[in-house]
Design a protein that fits this description.
This protein is mainly alpha-helical and 108 residues long. Helix content is 67%, strand content 0%. The chain has a domain of 70 residues. The radius of gyration is 18 Å and the shape is flat.
């Protein structure tokens, strides 16, 4: 299955509007923050080599997926086009050459 960010955004909005019609406007932002914490927690435990029941990588990938879904929802709430944001940002980021220009990535 191939899914574009634009299609994900459409589908996620329909799903959220149906399942959580009374949600607060900060719902998705709080979800992003929670999932980022879960990702950091799983990674930290992996680095410390503790609390690993063999599922830390699964917890990381689950948190990454949830982060994307919550970011899509945030973009929907704010009427942002995530596809456009990612494409525009990548166009700027990929122009940076940190080896050649270690101070700012573009000219020095």
């Amino acid at each position: 299955m191939s899914l574009t960010l634009k299609q994900l955004q459409v589908e996620q909005k329909e799903w959220v509007d149906y399942n959580f019609p009374e949600r607060a406007d900060y719902y998705h932002l709080l979800g992003v923050m929670e999932e980022l914490g879960e990702l950091a927690h799983a990674r930290l435990k992996g680095l410390e080599k503790i609390r690993d029941n063999g599922d830390l990588e699964m917890k990381e990938t689950d948190a990454i997926g949830d982060l994307i879904i919550f970011l899509v929802g945030y973009c929907n709430d704010r009427n942002f086009d995530l596809q456009d944001i990612v494409e525009s940002t990548w166009e700027h980021v990929k122009q940076r050459d940190w080896r050649r220009f270690p101070n700012n990535g573009v000219s020095e």
